[in-house]
Amino acid sequence: MSHQDRTKFTVGQRIVLAVVPRIVWAVLWLVGLTWRFEVIAEEGVTPVVFGQKAGPEIYCFWHQCVLPCTMYFRHSRAVILISRSFDGELITRVLRLFGFDAVRGSSSRGAREGLLGLKSVIEAGRTAIFTADGPRGPIYETKLGPIKLAQATGAPIGAFHLQPEHAWTLNSWDRFLIPKPFTRIVVSWAQWTRVPANLPAAQFQVMRRELNAAIERARLRALAHLGQNAS
């Protein structure tokens, strides 16, 4: 832990950061090994499959399916944008145990630095990940960050959703999903979003809505595949 970390967090928080990530990693790893992933995709879409090392791309999904995404993409070497809060530090340490890396920032704090960091990630040939409606919502509403990054780098944006057949749903803003052991999880891919390099800023919202619709189609398609109702 750096000197900056020691001054930023309380003694109690530092103890949590030293102990909890490895416990969460061990439990998630053991339970995650029992999950069965099934991939579906819209017509003409080539999905990224389990175990595949991803390239200079941008992935976007809703915050509620962080846990299954962590297991499914653990071999991708992807880099995720995470807030600078205590919760963000906790999540970062768990993700690093799974082989991910993190750029710190969010839509509200350190946004510019976060996007610059992810731009370097793309330029290095690696994948950048956004929890599109995180870290605080509103639910199912993506931010502009992925669009700005795609314009700056030329990287395509992959929209997907992971829906467990059986899960506990937390009473949180994002309706966070905790897949139950041995459940089937549908990995649903929608059409990729490509942002022209010369797109004027006035059109960013149009592209944001296009990406938002793609992630939602992926979610609704996964629910329909499992015979579940949308919420």
Question: What is the topological layout?
Answer:
Layout: H1 3-8, H2 11-32, E1 36-41, E2 58-61, H3 66-72, E3 79-82, H4 86-97, E4 101-104, H5 111-123, E5 128-131, H6 145-153, E6 157-164, E7 167-169, E8 177-179, E9 184-189, H7 204-225
Parallel strand pairs: 1-9, 2-5, 2-6, 3-4, 3-5
Antiparallel strand pairs: 6-9, 7-8
Summarize the structure.
This protein is α/β, with parallel strands linked by helices.
Report on this structure.
The chain is α/β, with parallel strands linked by helices and 231 residues long. Helices cover 39% and strands 18% of the residues. Helix 2 packs parallel to helix 4 and helix 5 packs parallel to helix 6. The longest helix is centred in the first third of the chain and has 22 residues. It is globular. The N and C termini lie far apart (41 Å).
